[in-house]
Amino acid sequence: MATLILVRHGRSTANTAGLLAGWTPGVALDERGAEQAAALPGRLAAVPLAAAVSSPLQRCRETLAPLLAARPELALHTDDRIGECHYGEWSNRKLSELGDEPLMKIVQQRPSAAAFPGGESMRAMQARAVDAVQEWNARIEEEHGSDAVFLMCSHGDVIKSLVADALGMHLDLFQRIHVDPCSVTAVRYTPTRPFLLRLGDTGDFGSLAPRPARAPDAAAAETETFESATEDGGNAVVGGGAGAA
Questions:
Q1: Phi-psi region of 168 (alpha: psi -120 to 50; beta: other; left: phi over 0)
Q2: Strand, coil or helix: what is 149?
Q3: For the whole model, what pTM was predicted?
Q4: Bridge partners of 194?
Q5: Distance CA 245, CA 182 (A)
Q6: Rounded to whole angstroms, how far apart are CA atoms 89 and 101?
Q7: Which pairing describes strands 149-154 and 52-54: parallel, antiparallel, or unpaired?
Q8: Hey, which of 4, 49, 54, 121 would disulfide with 115, CB 3.0 to 4.6 Å?
Q9: pLDDT (tens digit, 9 = 90+) per residue, 66-121?
Q10: What is the pLDDT of residues 138-195, one digit of tens each?
């Protein structure tokens, strides 16, 4: 079957503000995110793409805009099933505040049992995304052949859940996976099993370096994935976090 390239959207204004955006309208790429998106065509220049599929949310459409401009022949499709998790009443709230919610412990330790108030469960998010991938795989293979490559631009938690599915991991383990903004994850699907070819590849290993100390106000204003993955018992950032600047 086809090879799927999963691109997480570039860094957004919600990422740098420490907000859990969800489906909140008007969340755009920030300056760094726009730079990441502009570099995407060059990073994928050697890869022939049969189609591009995007989450309907603005930050994903903005991430793909430079790639589509560089490849005017590339067909773009929108699929709500790879849109962000519906966080319900948690949407557009500060992650620093949500850390004290009892549900956050479930999100971190047993996400398969987590359902957001007024939103959806993490199991439902994964199920719809996996369904979308399977259907698009079949369609791309039928139209372009088994060696075809296609791209999906989606969100951190969605991509992590798809990687967990590809690896045969229970959803309760998906918080161990991390993908940076505008990172590339690639999965090759075959009739018997998927193969994970790339995971969260940005071509930049700067985020692995220790972070310099920051002033308290700066630390509160920005959600850094590296730090939040090593503090508070190793909690993962819901919604993916800002990643490396």
A1: left
A2: strand
A3: 0.88
A4: 189
A5: 12
A6: 12
A7: parallel
A8: 121
A9: 999 999 999 999 999 999 999 999 999 999 999 999 999 999 999 999 999 999 99
A10: 999 999 999 999 999 999 999 999 999 999 999 999 999 999 999 999 999 999 999 9
Question: To which residue do tokens 């369609």 refer?
Answer: 139
- For residue 212, the 8-state DSSP code is P
Tokens 């992650």 map to which residue? 95
> DSSP letters along the chain, please?
--EEEEEEPPPBHHHHHTEE-TT-TT--B-HHHHHHHHHHHHHTTTS--S-EEE-SSHHHHHHHHHHHHH-TT--EEE-GGGSPP--GGGTTEEHHHHTTSHHHHHHHH-GGG-B-TTS-BHHHHHHHHHHHHHHHHHHHHHHH-TT-EEEEEE-HHHHHHHHHHHTT--GGGGGG----TT-EEEEEE-SS-EEEEEEEE-S--GGGSPPPP--HHHHHH---HHHHTTSTTTPPPTT------
CA dihedral 168, 169, 174, 178 (to 10 degrees): -60
